[in-house]
Amino acid sequence: MDRLMKLLSPLIGQQAVVDGIRCQVIEILDTDPEPRLVVGEVAGHHVIQPDQHGEPHRRVERTFTLPLLNDDHSDIHPVIQTLAGDDRVAELRRVLKG
Where does the source fall among the domains of life (predicted)? Predict the structure, then answer.
């Protein structure tokens, strides 16, 4: 897991346009069985963020939490591939294959 986190951590701040939406990696979550990336829209639609009591608090851009692997766990998630670029994706695949 440490090698994956080291490969993924430079993606924080990385931006890409995915399906016409400009997004940016906000955080890498060290979760089991695989890391997850938190991706936020850049200058996108705002949603109301609730506070800890569920009350409306402020408007923020939408965020999405993406698993490292796609739905059938056969490859890197396509959005992460776009954000990471070919070289980093190839290295991630090597680490995942062990």
Answer: Bacteria
Radius of gyration of the chain (CA): 15
User: What pTM did the predictor assign?
Assistant: 0.82
Instruction: Residue 82: give the domain boundaries.
Output: 2-97
pLDDT reading at 45 higher than 80: no
Q: What whole-number distance in Å separates Cα of residue 2 and Cα of residue 35?
A: 10
Whether the CA torsion 29, 30, 31, 34 is positive or negative: it is positive
Spatial separation of the C-alpha atoms in residues 7 and 48, rounded to whole Å: 33
The whole-number pLDDT of residue 1 equals 64
Domain total of the chain: 1
The three-class DSSP label of residue 17 is strand
Task: Give the Cβ contact number of residue 86 at 10 Å.
Answer: 8
